[in-house]
Amino acid sequence: MTVTVRFAPSPTGHIHIGNSRPALFNWLFSRKEGGRFVLRFDDTDLERSKQEYAESIEKDLRWLGIIPDFIERQSRRVASYDVASQKLKDAGLLYPCYETPEELDRRRSRQRSLGRPPVYDRAGLKQTAEERAAFEAEGRRPHWRFILPNHDADPFETKRTDVTWNDLCRGEQSVDLSSMSDPVLIRADGTYLYTLPSIVDDIDMGITHVIRGEDHVANTGVQIAIFEALGAAAPIFGHHNLLTTRDGEGLSKRKGALSIGSLREAGLEPMSVASLAVLTGTSQAVEPVQDMDALIGKFDLASISRSSAKFDPEELKNLNARLVHELPYEAVSDRLADLGIEAGADFWETVRGNCETVNDAADFWQIVTGPVVSRIEDEDREFVAKTRNFLPDGEITPETWSAWTSALKSETGRKGRGLFMPLRRVLTGMDHGPDMKAMLPLIGRRNILDRLP
């Protein structure tokens, strides 16, 4: 059996770091098991689904390093769902209901007021052919519900019916079908809700493992029942904790919170995003991982905590900086060129320890090439005025800084911050930055002299 997993986003918006978590989990699982990864767009909602969002999702996944083995769109497979729904209708497992949303809301409110769970009472099963014809004459169209196998002969006499499975993340799980309403699989307009298309696709595509967020745990019992009703074995399930902000706030496409596109545009490294999305909420340390192969080695569904996976967006910046500090010149040379930086390895090795993102190197390139706005504090003007005369002759080398400052120390008696800071400010316009010993040769004699008073 070839392990086959899927990531099935709805192309109704841009994906964010929270969406990337199940995508990465599925991708890493498939690579670790030598399997296949299917990207499947849940685009049966034709009004809200947009091609631009599908393209954005593909782009974001590829940026993260997720390359699908196969891409499918549910909008192309409606005929398969029609066949499956007819099979359920013929078996008496899919029945029409004519209640309006307002009527269902009133019924649920009444049940709650009586202290009863708001479970659908299967009134649609009691309707006669004449009653259904009358509803049709009014212009009503039915939605269709799947009758759960939580009864013996009489569907109005439900009994406790536990569906159990061994969850890859949560261990043994159980759902009682008698506590649930028969799910709506087809809307009144004839379009399908997510459940049936997803199950039909999982069957047809040979999905062996479904790894998804814990918000789907309650749905799993229903879905296993539908798999069995269609004569198929259910896949193995794994439900991981959800990624939230430090305050426990959930992420949503609608809010655009921490979208992958915005993180990419901010100059973050894909592996810093992947490292945080995968390792947060596990027993492993959240640390920057250099590449996807290394992350595959760390990936373990059993290490996922049962508590929520909270993260601080600031932690992403810290992870990214730690990753950037270790990037070799060969890994960034093309990106530096795209930033207009015409420098070699010496420049990158000098500035990378002060960069949160690779894009930050452009600020230091500006300092190297100029112009810069030099800063001279009033109390340092007399000191700075003397510095030109003590700049060593000849080529500017890494030793120049030490020789220059030693000469100035002997002449003025200044030392420590009082000696180094005025020079840094006049040459770079900054209070901090890369080691001036390495920066000085990059800036060069001409720029040094131009910036001194």
UniProtKB/TrEMBL annotation:
GO MF terms, alphabetically ordered: ATP binding; glutamate-tRNA ligase activity; tRNA binding; zinc ion binding
Lineage top rank: taxon: Bacteria
Biological process (GO), any one: glutamyl-tRNA aminoacylation
Motif 'HIGH' region, chain ranges: 9-19
Gene Ontology cellular component terms for the protein in this record: cytoplasm
EC number, UniProt record: 6.1.1.17
Start and end residues of each Glutamyl/glutaminyl-tRNA synthetase class Ib catalytic domain: 3-317
Key words, A-Z: Aminoacyl-tRNA synthetase, ATP-binding, Cytoplasm, Ligase, Nucleotide-binding, Protein biosynthesis
Subcellular location: Cytoplasm
Claim: Protein biosynthesis is one of the keywords in the record: yes
Subunit comment: Monomer.
UniProt record similarity statement: Belongs to the class-I aminoacyl-tRNA synthetase family. Glutamate--tRNA ligase type 1 subfamily.
Protein name per the record: Glutamate--tRNA ligase
Organism from which the protein derives: Roseibium album
Lineage, broadest ranks: Bacteria, Pseudomonadati, Pseudomonadota, Alphaproteobacteria, Hyphomicrobiales
Protein's gene: gltX1
